[in-house]
Each structure stands twice: as structure tokens, then as C-alpha cells.
Design goal:
The structure is a homodimer. With about 220 residues, chain A is α+β, with helices and mostly antiparallel strands. The first copy, chain A, is about 60% helix and about 10% strand. In chain A, strand 1, helix 1 and strand 2 form a beta-alpha-beta unit. Chain A is globular and about 45 Å long. Chains A, B: One of its GO terms (molecular function) is transferase activity.
Chain lengths: ~220, ~220
């Protein structure tokens, strides 16, 4: 059955691989499943057709036959459950990998998103300069703990898993903040993820959308 | 095998059922599994023994034989995977329920926690009165979308599932903020969760810890 995912028609990051469809693209590349992409505009994301697929009006979504899913954690987990290579077979190791998937999304990502979004919602306030360091310290608390746990290990719990895939992309959201660079082992961990052939294919695919979009803009300007 | 979870020795909420061990207690009560509770102090939570179980120094944790887990989403999912009654058997319905578990934890909970924590980290700043309404509006965006999707339904996707268990407890964190009361269907949804016998048993268990603690404090004061 054909797998169709949605992605931004014009990604706010211009193809730096920070949009959440990257998580699903990477997972599908790891397990070697082809997929189609339907691009949606910001306007379409808030319209009834898209809201029927994604009640919170975001991307990506995942459709396969009768099944429609949203939330990258759930989509990546669904892919991992139905294909080999993203979760260990041993039951306890699998439960621990799932634990790290939730940890990436519910413990590590929220303060990172909070810091990132603060610029959009209160970045123009005179007191933003006081708030930002507080939010950055909240990110550091989690990075300190994660760096301590990871230590010199290659991946979070033995072999590469769906949890590493999500954690690497969550950490990549710090790009440009300088925060990740304070943790050499976390920087190396992200670099290990980015070096995987499946990551590179996924990255190239999302970049092609951005480049195509820029090409179209250039053509319009002629 | 005995299941042991950890919980706060002195819960900051004084037994109102808002601490995260409530999620695990409720799940275990729904499937009828007995469990033991090891209480940990704030000091112990940051010590090596506890950090070995929970790298982010929080509660609850879950131990069963050789298996040690953290993150409530993962623990509740593990319980649901090994016992009947918390996730549908049909594969697509199961994938949708898992989607809602991730949505509760990664989309609905973060702005709620952000609002809640802001008081502790910047509540003493002269500009806090300007920040709080912005954070409340971010919570409302999610509540609007959730209320639209839920409509008149009893539960998120057909029968009660682990996703409802988590979503109800995530929404309960808004207690005292007045925000939930703006959404009559979400308030009814939370009340339906709280009316379940398993919820009531879980609530009573965590309250007993708080009451015992208060009893001990009273005794100390005599």
C-alpha cells in the first residue's frame, strides 16, 4: 500500500531539515519503504480537510490505506512496529528504546521548543533579554542530564533505534543557538546520526522541495 | 513478578493527584495489577541510585524483574502492551490510540507545563503579568483544537484507552487555572475519567501517602 505523508509547501527553515516531516522521512529511509509527499500550505493546514487528518493543524501526517496518523512519535513507532531495523526484537530492550522515544519528545524537546518559540511570541518585548537566559538554562538542565547518561556511548541504549532518530532531530532544533556546542558528546552523537545514509537521503529529499520552491520563486521574478 | 514504582515522598500537590505517578497507578488499577511504591525524597531523586533508574531525576520509575523504565508514556504503554484493557486489539485502532498518547504528551502537555512552571522560574519578575496571558493563549490554542476534535464524543477514539488516561491527567494539570472551565466538553471529559473506579482507587492510594505524611508532620509538631 502506498504511504503518503504531508510536509510544508514552504518550510520555514528553507530546507535545513528541521521540520518534523524529517523524522518520518528518515524512519522510512531506514527501513527502505518508498513514500509519496503531499505538500500543504500554511492556509491549507488550518482548513477542514487537513484538520480531519491532523486535529492540531500541523505536519506531518501519515496515510496508508485506511489508516491515518499524526504525531511524529506515533508515526515513527508505527513504522518501527511494522518493519525491521528501528526497534530491538528483545522485549526489554524494546521497552527501553520506547522509553527513550517518549523521553526525547516529552522531556527533552519541550524546553527546546519553548526557547525557540519564545522569540516569536514575546521576542519584541523589552524584557525578552531577561527571559531568554532563563529558558536557555532550562534547556541546559536537560542537556546536562542527557550528556551524563550518554557518556561515551554511540547510541542511547545499545544499537541505533527509533529513539536515537527522534533524539538526534530534537537536538538538531538547537542549531544556531550555540547550546549544543557546549556538549561535545551530544554534538558527536548528532553528527553520528547525520552520517547515516538513510538520514542523508531523507535530508536530500526535503531539501529538494525547498530548492524547487526557490526555483519557482526565481522564475516568478524573471 | 512484583512491580515497583517510585513516587514523591512529599508530593508538591499534597495529594491532589497531579503528580505523574498517578498515571502509572491508574493504568495498573485499570488492568488489575498490584504494585508496590517506593517513596523518594527530592534529595534522593538527584542522587546516583535514582539517576541510574531515571536519567532526568524525576518520578515515577517502573521496575519489574530485570526491566527498569522511566517516562510515564512509556510505562503506561508497557502496561497496556502486556495486559488487556488499555489499548484496542484492532491494529489500526491501536495505532490511533498510540497517536493520541503521543499527542497528549508532545502537543497538549508542553504548553500546560510551560504555563505552570513559569510561575516558579520568572513569577517574581515585574513583567510576569505580561508573560502569563501569552502562555495562557498558547494553552488555549491546543484546548480549542482538542475541544473541536472531541466534540460530543465520550473518549478520543471510540472506547476508553491509555490515551484518554494520559490526556485526562494532562488536562487535570490545569486545575485552579480556570482554563479548563472555558471548555465544557473537556471538563465533562475529565469528569468522566475521574468517575472510573480504577481512577478512584489510584487517587485514594496517592492521597493516603500525602495524609500519612501530614500525620507524621503533625506528630513531629506535638
Amino acid at each position: 500500500m502506498t504511504i503518503t505523508i504531508t510536509a510544508f509547501e514552504r518550510s520555514p527553515d528553507g530546507g535545513r531539515g528541521l521540520a518534523r516531516d524529517m523524522r518520518v522521512r528518515w524512519a522510512l529511509e531506514e527501513v527502505g519503504r518508498p513514500y509519496e509527499v503531499r505538500l500543504v500550505s500554511f492556509k491549507q493546514m488550518k482548513e477542514p480537510d487537513h484538520l480531519a487528518l491532523h486535529p492540531f493543524g500541523q505536519i506531518p501526517t501519515y496515510e496508508e490505506g485506511d489508516l491515518a496518523l499524526f504525531e511524529t512519535g506515533a508515526i515513527v513507532f508505527h513504522i518501527a512496529r511494522h518493519n525491521r531495523g528501528l526497534l530491538p526484537e528483545d522485549d526489554n530492550a524494546r521497552a527501553r528504546a520506547i522509553t527513550w522515544m517518549f523521553a526525547a519528545l516529552n522531556t527533552v524537546e519541550p524546553p527546546i521548543v519553548e526557547r525557540e518559540q519564545s522569540r516569536y511570541v514575546v521576542g519584541d518585548k523589552p524584557w525578552y533579554g531577561e527571559l531568554l537566559p532563563v529558558l536557555e538554562d532550562r534547556v541546559r538542565v536537560r542537556l546536562d542530564q542527557l550528556a551524563s547518561r550518554l557518556g561515551d556511548a554511540q547510541w542511547l541504549d545499545g544499537a541505533f533505534s527509533a529513539a536515537d532518530l527522534i533524539m538526534v532531530l530534537v537536538l538538531r532544533r538547537l542549531e544556531g543557538s550555540g547550546l549544543l556546542e557546549e556538549y561535545p558528546n551530544l554534538s558527536s552523537y548528532v553528527a553520528r546520526g547525520e552520517a547515516r545514509p538513510a538520514y542523508k537521503r531523507a535530508f536530500a529529499s526535503q531539501l529538494a522541495v525547498a530548492n524547487h520552491d526557490r526555483g519557482a520563486e526565481d522564475a516568478e521574478r524573471q
